[in-house]
Structure formats: C-alpha cells, structure tokens
What we know:
The structure holds 2 protein chains of 2 kinds.
Chain A: E1 4-7, E2 10-14, E3 19-25, E4 30-38, E5 44-51, E6 56-59, E7 62-67, E8 72-77, E9 86-94, E10 103-105, E11 109-114
Parallel strand pairs in A: 2-11
Antiparallel strand pairs in A: 1-3, 3-8, 4-5, 4-9, 6-7, 7-8, 9-10, 9-11
Chain B: E1 4-6, E2 10-13, E3 19-25, E4 31-38, E5 42-49, E6 56-57, E7 64-70, E8 73-78, E9 87-94, E10 104-105, E11 109-113
Parallel strand pairs in B: 2-11
Antiparallel strand pairs in B: 1-3, 3-8, 4-5, 4-9, 5-6, 7-8, 9-10, 9-11
Amino acid sequence: KQEVTQIPAALSVPEGENLVLNCSFTDSAIYNLQWFRQDPGKGLTSLLLIQSSQREQTSGRLNASLDKSSGRSTLYIAASQPGDSATYLCAVQLISSGSARQLTFGSGTQLTVLP
Amino acid sequence: DVKVTQSSRYLVKRTGEKVFLECVQDMDHENMFWYRQDPGLGLRLIYFSYDVKMKEKGDIPEGYSVSREKKERFSLILESASTNQTSMYLCASSLLGLTYNEQFFGPGTRLTVL
Lengths: 115, 114
C-alpha cells in the first residue's frame, strides 16, 4: 500500500528565509505528484503538479522537484513571508488507482513564518 | 477561474438524521471525489465518481452513499448520521486524463453531529 510521508511535521522560520519541505512515497509507480496549501479551517489550494516524466515545476517563489526513482519530492519556498504560513500537503496519483486517479495524501507540514 | 463549491461551510446535525452534502464544479470535469479530513488521520477518500451515475468506493465508504445525476454535481449522503462522522468534508474534481489531471478542491464543509 502506498505511504506518503512528510517531514518535518511542523516548521517555524523567520521571515525572509529560504526553506525546503520534504515528501517521500513508497510506490514509485505514480502518474504525478501534487503540492497543496491549506489554511486553517479551509479547503486545499493546488500549488504545483509535477508529472511523472518531469523533474521540477516552478510557480513564483515556489519550486517543486520530483525524483521518482528514489520516491522523493521537495517543495522549495524562496524568501518566505508571513502569508506563507499554512499547512503544506503533498499527494501522489498512483498508476494502480485506475481511471479516476484518486490521490494518496501525506499528513502535511505546518509552516509558520515569523515576522 | 476554476471553481468547486460546497453547499454549506458549517453544518450541525443530530444523531440519526439524514444528511446531504452537495458539491458543484463548473469546469466540466469527469472525476469528482469526496474526502474527509480528521486530525491525526489526514485526508481519506470516501467515494469517487468518474462519470454520471458511476461511483466507486474509496478507503472509508461505510456509513456513506453518493449520487451523481449530473456531471457537475456530486452529493454525499449520510443515511443516519453518527457522532463519529463529525469531520471536515472536502469535495474535489479533476479531468479524466492520464498524467495531467490536477485536482481542485472546494472550501470544505465542517459537519458536527450531536
């Protein structure tokens, strides 16, 4: 069974720092990996999607990488801001999930950026 | 702008009541999903649908049913609500693609069963 792990569970950094969030998965037979942001009590906002054939995706200050063979992805946030404070979730879509491509989620990293 | 909406942000029901949670997407997506999110357990898939009138069980379907009569609408039904169904319920949708099928989520419904 696919397991998705995110380390650390919580992270606190001062404003302006660059930071890396980690995600690992046990089954490398994936279609893609998606990073989400969740603010307290809210739904999930999609940040980046990396297809299995890609190595990285960038959006603004965010850069996500994927190493499928080692079962790892990282989310790099440059020049962090207090508004980046949220829980960040990674999720994988398994090839074995059939046509619907449901996601398997990690437990998330709770990020706090201190002013 | 892509949009997934859920009928209620907060809902309070009593044990034994029948509860309907509605989800609507305006992106003409084939796939729709219902998850629940609980502290310490993360997001877990309840049911999904890849076409009108089609449904598949997810990881935790017990106590739930679903209905998809129209492509844009996916309903989650709690036939007889119980206190252990108190949770945050999240709906999502995506295209029926192979590799690029980004999931988009609604704002969530916080359900409390008393």
